Amino acid sequence: MALKKKKASKAPIVKTKSVAKKSSVKKAVKKAATKKPIAKNQKPKVAKKVAIKKIAKKVVAKPIKKAVKKTATKKVISKKTVVAKKAPVKPAVKAKATPVKKVAAKKVVAKLVKKVETKINTIKKQTIDAPKETSVSGTEKVVKIGVKTKKQVVTIAPLPVIEVSDYPKHKVKTILISQPKPENDKNPYYDLANKYNLIETFRQFIKIEGLPVKDFRAQRIDILEHKAVILTSRMAVDHYFRMCNEMRVTVPESMKYFCINEATAYYLQKYIQYRKRKIFFGHQTIQDLVDVIRKNREEKFLLPAADVHKEKICEFLDVINIKYTKAVMYRTVSADLSDIKNLNDYDVLAFFTPAGIASLKFNFPNFKQGNTRIACFGAATANALKNNGYRLDIYAPNPKNPSMSGALDDYMKESNKR
Q1: What would the pLDDT profile of 208-267 be if each residue is shown by its tens digit?
Q2: Within 13 Å of residue 186, how many CA atoms lie on the same side as its CB?
Q3: Residue 136 in contact with residue 263, Cβ under 8 Å?
Q4: Residue 140 confidence class, pLDDT cut points 50, 70, 90
Q5: In this structure, are residues 48 and 12 in contact, taking their beta carbons and an 8 Å threshold?
Q6: What's the angle, vertex CA 332, arms to CA 200 and CA 179, rounded to 5?
Q7: Sequence spans of domains, the chain
Q8: Same fold for the domain at 174-205+339-415 and the one at 209-334?
Q9: Helix (H, G, I), strand (E, B) or coil at 176
Q10: What stretches of 228-309 adopt beta strand conformation (E)?
Q11: Which long-range contacts (C-beta less than 8 Å, at least 24 apart) are formed by 188-195?
């Protein structure tokens, strides 16, 4: 009996960090020992110890969880929020007060945006300096140059002021246009005819003949010395390759082609295969090719032209200091207009080149203008008309109408009112 008492006096004491009472722990131990069954292989003393540890964890964890909840529910009020409670502020003003972290994040984002913008600007500069490549066919690369470039320093001369006569604007019923008949029905002159019920006649006053090889050799021009060609029209393309064939000159694949517009560049497919060829084209003027020509200033350029051509291209190349050779490969000749009996049967005559005015004077030396109105396109054509003693009634391009069809339409709005 004494031994049993000794064993009972040695009860396990649970040491916990909390301030829980020993009596409560003992009661909990007794309940756990009575409720939970003991495993088969587990001794009663071990089972008591495990139960004591579990209960001790619960007793310690409860007051800690309560303290955590209390601290979480308590609102930590700063000085700014206390002031806001005393003096109510509008919600818009509260939105302006941003935390320090958000302000720092905005600064970082602003720095990154600046870096990205600088990179984009450098890439844009490189793309402006370097020509953009667009494919014409599956194998060839054609470079298209924009008009707006930072390197374009050459100033374009303004349009000259041409005086137009104040002759009375009679009604227009018939019109003669000194151009070949258009192939398609989609043409601004057909639209004019439908709009004003006009009778239109298309007749070319000039014809173009290729220069013979003997006359070309008299110019003492070696085609193979030039490694770049400036082509201003399809006619220039035809006569350039015609002259090469007649002189038995094989055009090298390394030849560079500078075309004044996209249509001329596509027309080159008639004569060359688009393999390893460098073709550059602008929108409509030689000024569009400033940057590309300057990058190839080391090359010697060949300019196939007619005997009567625009001197503006040569003046432009002289301003840029480009080495070039003007090669006359075709010439304009007056066409045979014997089938036209009387020009006074037409109310309006439209001319586009000085050669057309020369053909008018050649074929009709006794022509008196009278009520027939004459329209001219370009300052050179208008000056040739006045030099031959004729009256100018309609002129294009002008500030209102850049095209001949637009100028005619503007004139007929007043003449064909009734």
Answers
A1: 899 999 999 999 999 999 999 999 888 999 999 999 999 999 988 889 999 988 888 888
A2: 0
A3: no
A4: very low
A5: yes
A6: 10
A7: 174-205+339-415, 209-334
A8: yes
A9: strand
A10: 228-231, 256-259, 278-281, 301-306
A11: 188/403, 188/405, 188/406, 189/405, 191/405, 192/405, 192/408, 192/409, 192/412, 195/409
The answer to whether the bond into 397 is cis (omega within 30° of 0) is: yes
CATH architecture of 209-334: 3-Layer(aba) Sandwich (3.40)
C-alpha separations of 284 from 111, 264, 265, 293 in Å = 43, 10, 12, 15
What pLDDT is attached to residue 27? 61
**What is the distance between the alpha carbons of residues 230 and 281, in angstroms, rounded to a whole number?**
10
Q: Would you say 147 and 287 are in contact if contact means Cβ atoms under 8 Å apart?
A: yes
Amino acid at 410: D
φ and ψ at residue 375, rounded to 5 degrees: -110, 135
The answer to whether the beta carbons of residues 277 and 251 sit under 8 Å apart is: no
Provide the H-helix boundaries in 255-403.
262-267, 290-295, 311-320, 354-363, 379-387
Share of the chain residues as helix, strand and coil, in percent rounded to the nearest 5: 45, 15, 40
CB 277 within 8 A of CB 140: yes
Q: Which amino acid is at 9?
A: S
Please state, in angstroms and rounded to a whole number, the distance separating the CA atoms of residues 206 and 10.
Answer: 133
Tokens of 407: 């100028």
Q: How far apart (Å, rounded) are the C-alpha atoms in residues 395 and 404?
A: 8
Class of domain 174-205+339-415: alpha beta
CB 273 within 8 A of CB 126: no
